[in-house]
Model the fold of this input.
Amino acid sequence: MNWARFTAVIAKEWAEITRDRLFLGLAFIVPPILMVVFGLGMNLDVEDIPLAIIDYDHSPQSRDYAYRMIDSRYFDFKGYLHDERQIAKLISRGDVRAVVVIPPKFGEDLVAGRAVAVQTLLDGQFPLRANIARGYIGAINANYSQELIANFLSRAAGFSPDQARQQMGNLRIEMRMLYNQSGKSIWSMAPKLIMMVLMMTPPLLTAVSVVREKERGSILNIYASTVSRAEFLLGKLVPYAGISMVNGVFLWALAVFYFQAPFKGSFGFFLLATAIYSFTTTGIGLLVSSFVKTQIAAVVMTMVVTLVPAILFSGMLFPLSSMGPEAQAIAHLAPAMHYGQVIDGAFMKGIGLEKLWSSVVSLLVYALVLFVLAHRFFTKRPQE
Amino acid sequence: MNFREVFQHMRVMTFKELIQFRRDIFLLIVVVYAFSADIYVAGSGIEMELKQAALTVADYDQSPASRDLIYSFRQPQFKYQGMEMNADHAMDLLDAGKTMLYLEIPADFNEALLSGKPTQVQLFVDTSNSVLGSLATSYAAQIVAGFGIQKAMERLSVGGAMGGGLPMVNSAHRVWFNPNGSDRWFVPINEMITMITMLSIMLPAAAMVREKERGTVEQLLVSPLTPLEIMLPKVLAMTFVILIGVTLAVFGVLGPVFEIPFRGNMLLFYVLTAIYVFSTAGFGLAISTVVNNLAQVGLMVIMLLSPMLLLSGAFVPPEAMPTALGYLILLSPMHHYIEIVMGIFLKGIGLDVLWPSVMGLLLVGTGVFAFGTWRFRRQFG
Done:
């Protein structure tokens, strides 16, 4: 590896980047824009689920029960329905996502001490939200039942209402929500967003920068020169990894100052991990570039192999532990997951290299393997 | 300008595009991959449910009651991971993500349940994934509340003595359109829509910019072709390619592999997909007039596409977004298209219910395509 030739390749690449003003601007503007748009729009809190109620009973008890749903901040009450036949249309159109059906004799049965089943119809189009809505309704029912039983006991067994309530509710659970006390998704999302955004642009830029030379024919200059394969590839890698790192710092600042995400770890550790991650992501681009001959193919291919894993398998939308074995295997194969764990630890948990070293080492191995593969597949003597 | 001549031009140019597409083997492979293996990978195994969340317990009571409670946290939502009485070690486990929940049961637990004295268990939940966290907390709260009621009833020997009945509200749930609440349907369909959207913006844009970059656009401009005759064949050819890809996805992956029922009208699905692809290509055309090389195309597409993917209601429905964004996504053709595809696929509904989404798609699509055409004619006219 000759230092002068290596830096010459970097200087050439950098000159090309800076002379394309639109490109240069986009390279630094796109990541922060993505971060802000995602951060504002990707609200994973499940609140305001549009809800309708059918009350066949019209008793004081059923109204009281309905108000528990209506008052809940998790539901956005759209109104009472009169007919079950309306449900299909409303749910099909997405006007409501849940309908609670209170059966006839609801109040009468409860007063008589009989159990009542309340049916909930849920829109399965968004399974996650359907599950959470089911949880909320179950919790409201459990809570209501507890009170009903307490009242019933106080009447039937002669406890005072307070005693009955204490007897029924003597077991309590205290929840401690760690790492993200408010449970608000925007906090927990910010670090994952950094991971995702840094996966989106750098591989693409690197791949296109190599393939452009192939397509335009300027790569013949490289083939004919004394520049070695490693010098050329590394020279291509460094400028884009540098751009990615600078973007990483911008995004960090956005996360901390704009999204107010808590940063409990060390900044040096974040920089180190981001640097390694940058070499990994650009390495993906480098590897793609050694297979394809046209820029279109390079663009489409990098987007398919980076965007999808970054969104789906990084543990951002879908918790890793709930994936099937195949998906888990893929997730572990994707560097995004490891970096996600690293910055999640650095932001939310304030832990560093001493606990996250295995993820950092995995990233490093990725960077090396990707580079070695790209080096292997890149040839200065192409056979046409 | 006579009609036959126009038709002839369009036909020749469309074939030229298809031939060019076919000759780029890697592009061909990637497009096939996008509509088959990619959808398979995305759809297999991802479920947005709490599953096997690791639970570590500090049981200071070691009584039958405490074991009962631990046993109530059962599979598939929870997985008992073991005992860890040392709180510091337990925090380390939480830090490292090795356990998600840590439950502390006090020493007086059994006694309190027998006597009715107040007691409380403490649960630490890793909520750094807020979705998982909220599911875990709500399940845990239900489990403990149910356990408390059950023990209280045993203690007061109600139930038996009272003649069997207790007034309580039980939940009966029915999930429509996706009876198992399974994401094995939801995710693959979404993934197909994502691929359609991505390719229908990118392929026409790339096909145009390639001509610019190689200089062949000059040849086209001095030919007798009008700007529309240059532009439309590219869109037509790519629409054709994408429709073939969709066929591969629907009949090769969604049906056989994921067993997703196709409940609606197939013809309606194809017509609306063609309209969607054609109009979304307008974005690609608009992009191709702004940029000069494919690197710029890539960045512009990412800038446009990523927000569209995440904010079109594929993962987050409109009602969960801030109000302004909720209205803004009405401008995204993808949003209308998602409603249409989910409606036709899973709900089996037709134009009678879908017409607002179809109108939305037509309006937004026409707008996008008109904008693309206008930019294009201004640059090349």
